[in-house]
Write a structure and sequence with these properties.
Elements lengths: L14 E5 L3 H12 L4 E5 L2 H10 L4 E5 L7 H11 L4 E6 L4 H10 L3 E4 L4 H30 L11 H13 L6 E4 L6 H10 L8 E5 L5 H9 L15 H5 L4 E5 L6 H13 L1 E2 L8 E2 L3 E6 L3 H6 L5 H7 L2 E4 L10 H11 L9 E2 L1 H9 L5 H15 L4 E2 L6 H4 L1 H7 L4 H17 L4 H8 L3 H10 L7
Parallel strand pairs: 1-2, 1-3, 3-4, 4-5, 6-11, 6-12, 7-8, 8-11, 13-14
Antiparallel strand pairs: 9-10
The structure holds adenosine-5'-triphosphate (ATP) and magnesium ion.
Length: 460
Amino acid sequence: MTEKNNLNGDNTTFTILIVDDEVGVLNSLKRFLARTGYCILVADNSEKCLATLTNNTIDLVLLDLKMPGVDGMETLKQIRFRYPEINVIIQTGHGGVSEAVQAMKIGASDFLIKGEPVEILQNRIKQIYQHWLLERENIALRNLNINQFHYEPLVGESPPIQHLKQLIVRVAPTDTTVLIQGESGTGKELIAKALHHHSDRRDKPFIALDCAAISESLLESELFGHEKGAFTGADCASQGLIRSANFGTLFLDEIGEISLQVQAKLLRTIQERTVRPVGSTKTFNANVRIVAATNRNLLDEVARSTFRQDLYYRISTVTITAPPLRERGSDIGLLTRYILESCASYHGKPAVASPACLDLLSRYDWPGNVRELDNVLRGAAVFSDNGILQPDDLPPALQELKEVNRQEPKKTSVAAFEKEAIKNALIASNYDRKEAVRMLGISEATLYRKIKKYNLKYSD
Ligand SMILES: Nc1ncnc2c1ncn2[C@@H]1O[C@H](COP(=O)(O)OP(=O)(O)OP(=O)(O)O)[C@@H](O)[C@H]1O
Ligand SMILES: [Mg+2]
């Protein structure tokens, strides 16, 4: 007697499946609960219950224990195994403590006795419904964030990059200082530009300074400016990059390289929003957002007393980690197309990568990350004969992978890809399985199965 009481087709209605072999119970409960606005489906045995779960999105099951054929306890086990995300409330006319304990152990949300006032059931459903609502709002908020990302040069759709884009959209509108960490070539500067682009400062300057590329003595005047005659060679006054970036964003690359003296001055600027040029007694207002980057572990520098702890905490209010390319292999195809389209080939039109070439690119480890991929592709584009990159156009380190290719059976590649995608989603979501499920677009039950199949870690 499974009845399809439609779910609006869009999963916006909280849907309850009532499972009971007594038609009278089914009908009275259905009438009572439908009045509260929930969508109600019913099934009078275990088989129909499982069929309904297969064909519909159900949020809560009210399950009777004593039923002819497969009983409620066994049905509960099946539901928990196949749909671990669905809440189940056991309802029974013959409540025993041992049965209640067993049901809770299997994973029922609650165990209620049929004779009890119906308000108890109503309250319990309301709690579960409110939790469901909250979760949906969070998901909607996250999706909104990802759809709001519109900085095209930052290419990638892998789970770690999706996570990164969400973070950028959320953090950008605030004025908080951001520390971006990650290996060389992972796109830290690009992330800083994306933050600027999504902030209210987007129409004001974005100024980048590589602190490692400039001598200690010059760095101070470069940042804070100087008075005329402040030091030998200071023929005229300079306002410095902090004031040049007023109302905009100042990106300090390799911040771990700056001296303790400049660190102290920078801390004052961040805290007081003022700048005092070298050789001057005057201070100037400076409304600048600082985004810093490092490929070192700054906490190690703090431990060695080469980086001020107070400055570290000040700049790392929000820390963003740029994922290495080897952890987002599924982006190689997109990145390759993007890079090749931006560089002219020998023939004057963009080159494309052959499938064999893409295969090698996606199996290389990329210690130099996207910058290395960029260099390899630009070099290959220049040398390719007909604008179609072949394995022979690639550097020797990549060509060596051709040998490995021959030993590997082809049929494993889909599974390997799937395993990689799941591993990436788990890492990117910090092992939050609900978040990983959302990123991958699969059910939680499927995720559990795949984690087992590929022998992956459940947690960090
Ligand atoms: N997600 C991405 N999409 C497109 N291009 C990217 C991406 N990430 C990095 N790149 C490109 O890779 C190169 C290196 O990026 P970037 O300079 O931002 O890296 P970085 O992390 O600052 O490196 P370093 O630590 O060496 O300064 C640039 O050409 C950049 O455009
Ligand atoms: Mg950089």
